[in-house]
Amino acid sequence: MPRLAGQIDLAKGEAILDAAVQVLGERGLAASMEEIARRAGVSKQTIYNHYGSKAELVRALVHRRVAGITAPLEMPGADEHPEQALTAFAREMLHALINPRANTMMRVYISGATEAPDVALAVFEAGPKASRGRLADFLAREHADGRLAVDDPAMAAEFFGGMVVGTYQLAGFLGVDLGLTHPQIEVIALEAARRFLRAYSL
Prior knowledge:
Layout: H1 10-27, H2 33-40, H3 44-51, H4 54-70, H5 82-97, H6 100-111, H7 117-144, H8 153-165, H9 168-174, H10 182-199
Helix pairs in contact: 1-2, 4-5, 4-7, 5-10, 7-8, 8-10
């Protein structure tokens, strides 16, 4: 079946995103689309055909990251097991916060925000806003199903996100190694989920 105009295959799309992470991480938002295309083994026009702009390319990068973080909230059976789902979500958030490459990319976005406000907006919308939105949707389902009392899912999602990231997020952006181990992450994630659920229990 022929592809629609601007459509590219999955493997090529992943190659472009992987190349964008490398090039932007090395050179910042001023990196050229030509260099990204060269690293990905595609033409610059292929990137523009699919993403349209550097801001939309960055949006796709952030979307890919957030999809992995929020996956536990959308797994089959997640709604019926909120403690497990929230713990897994918190665990993914924390692992993202101590990921050196992810933190490098966030520093790139932040440092270039003034010169590229369209990119900054794309990062916010595809990142924190989307992540909190998916958590709010999960909490709204829990409320509708009678498992939790969450009158304002959006506010509750902000509360949970704040409980989890704490100062770890800022430390990651600053390159400060807090020495979080996998066992410590498990404890933090589970404790955050349990305290949150107690706060919103029926």
